[in-house]
């Protein structure tokens, strides 16, 4: 009785907090000073048609580095806790996948991989970027793992791709200090022609590195989950 | 027209969110959370945020649903 009373009290209190938030909320019609600066000068300063990318990679590049680091930590912790070292143990044969998934995976995996690479290479021109492209690459691995459960990613290649792209990301950032205005400045390369694939300075390079890193990390997480699914005989 | 689509999507999202909480079968609940993310990504697209929509569609409704199913399979075997 008294427990229910407290539950209702807490729910009513939360409702009060959120109602006051709801009544005070109003969509603003004008941009804040910082957003106005980005909207007016973003194309000229960074040279990327996709303003979101120019904010994510150049103006707020340090945040992106932080996000990539957090994702790396998550992948490392998951592989640490899900590590199974049982060599020589007999495993039950996995269930055979249906013909539809087998055929679809043969047809679709290369296409989805190319789509992911397209998304992160064109991150400065079209919507999308490193994180989105990396996630699309990881979905290709999902399809591959569903079609043949025995499929194993080569962990050495994954680790090499992941660490090399992470180090190269930081290296490009440090080059920005030496050659241009500051850490992760994209003007270490010429800005080029606005709207072309090779333009916007270092943004295509940085986003390709982020895409490779995110794709390998997410694929690694999935393959770790797949490893612990195997039935013991 | 746009407003109508948005209202329909949000109603579906609310129904699916309640389904995810109250449904007896865990597989149905996991699929319902995936549908919530999918509808959210369509909503982001209609509100002119395609970058967020791509992330939500790939991670929210794709990868996290798969990871939920992996975990569900694992804890069922452990029982």
Number of strands of chain B: 0
Strand content of chain B: under 5%
Report Rg of chain A: 23 Å
Helix segment count of chain A?
8
Helix content of chain A: 55-70%
Query: Which structural class fits the helix and strand makeup of chain A?
Result: mainly alpha
Q: Helix coverage percent of residues of chain B?
A: over 70%
Q: Average pLDDT value of chain A?
A: 83
Number of domain modules of chain B: 1
- Main sheet makeup of chain B: none
Strand content of chain A: under 5%
Q: Helical region count of chain B? A: 3
Biggest interface and which pair forms it?
A-B, 22 and 16 residues
| Rg of chain B, Cα atoms, Å | 14 Å
What low-confidence regions of chain A span 5 or more consecutive residues with pLDDT below 50?
none
Subunit arrangement of the protein: heterodimer
Kindly report how far apart the N and C termini of chain A lie.
50 Å
Concise overview:
Helices cover 68% and strands 0% of the residues of chain A. Chain A is mainly α and 233 residues long. In chain B, 90% of the residues lie in helices and 0% in strands.
Overview of the structural elements:
Chain A has 233 residues and is an all-alpha fold. Chain A has helices spanning 2-24, 33-46, 51-59, 61-81, 99-121, 130-147, 155-179, 203-227. Chain A has one domain (48-81, 96-227). In chain A, helix 5 packs antiparallel against helix 8, helix 6 packs parallel to helix 8 (203-227) and helix 7 (155-179) runs antiparallel to helix 8 (203-227). The relative contact order of chain A is 0.16. The model of chain A has no long low-confidence stretch (mean pLDDT 83). Chain B has one domain (2-78). Helices cover 90% and strands 0% of the residues of chain B. Chain B has helices at 2-22, 26-46, 50-78. Chain B is flat. At the A-B interface, helix 6 and helix 8 of A face helix 3 of B.
């Amino acid at each position: 009785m008294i427990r229910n009373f407290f539950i209702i009290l807490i729910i009513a209190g939360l409702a009060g907090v959120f109602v006051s938030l709801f009544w005070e909320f109003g969509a603003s019609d004008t941009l804040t000073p910082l957003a106005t600066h980005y909207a007016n000068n973003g194309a000229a300063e960074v040279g990327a048609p996709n303003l979101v990318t120019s904010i994510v990679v150049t103006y707020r590049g340090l945040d992106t580095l932080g996000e990539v680091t957090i994702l790396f930590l998550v992948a490392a912790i998951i592989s640490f806790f899900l590590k199974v070292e049982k060599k020589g143990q007999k495993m039950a044969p996995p269930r055979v996948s249906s013909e539809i998934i087998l055929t679809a995976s043969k047809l679709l995996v290369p296409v989805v991989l190319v789509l992911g690479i397209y998304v992160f290479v064109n991150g400065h021109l079209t919507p999308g970027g490193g994180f989105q492209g990396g996630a699309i690459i990881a979905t290709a691995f999902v399809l591959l793992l569903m079609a043949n459960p025995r499929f194993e990613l080569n962990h050495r290649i994954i680790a090499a791709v992941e660490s090399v792209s992470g180090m190269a990301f930081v290296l490009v950032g440090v080059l920005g200090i030496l050659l241009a205005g500051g850490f992760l400045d994209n003007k270490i390369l010429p800005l080029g022609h606005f709207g072309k694939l090779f333009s916007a300075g270092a943004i295509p390079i940085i986003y390709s590195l982020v895409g490779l890193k995110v794709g390998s990390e997410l694929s690694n997480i999935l393959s770790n989950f797949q490893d612990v699914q195997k039935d013991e005989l | 027209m746009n407003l109508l689509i948005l209202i329909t999507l949000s109603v579906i999202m609310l129904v699916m969110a309640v389904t995810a909480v109250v449904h007896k079968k865990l597989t149905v609940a996991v699929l319902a959370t995936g549908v919530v993310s999918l509808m959210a990504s369509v909503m982001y697209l209609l509100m002119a945020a395609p970058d967020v929509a791509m992330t939500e569609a790939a991670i929210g409704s794709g990868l996290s649903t798969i990871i939920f199913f992996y975990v569900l399979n694992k804890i069922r075997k452990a029982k």
